[in-house]
Amino acid sequence: MTDSQGVWCKDDDRPVTDEAKIERLVRAFYTRIRADAVLGPIFDGVIGDNWEPHLLKMIDFWSSVMLTTGRYKGQPMRAHLKLKQVTPKHFDRWLMLFRETAEQVCAPEAAERFIEKAGRIAESLQLGMFFKPVLHDPERKEPRLVG
What we know:
The chain is an all-alpha fold. It contains six helices and no strands.
């Protein structure tokens, strides 16, 4: 539920996060991403020197996710489908860095909520990017070998 300031609350109305905490998390996380030997080059290849607009977009994204502000208007699946060099292992690394950052900069309860949401988002993006329904179709017969 949200209150008049858009603070995502628990059932007993104690705030879990707010805009300032979201910004702090996003900025700390992407500082780690940029320094990471695996993910840094991927992000730099896409974002280049335009980090501030990306950070503002991610702050809006997390505000929409955590506070239901509706500020984010992008299409994350479309953006990620363009990233042909990304593999599921990159998502594992992303989630590990996100978890570490959330646990470092957030109160435990807020960190848990952010990590839970991040896991669901990563799972959804991976399904859209990598799931091949034909490989999991129980009606599909074994491929025939020619020769």
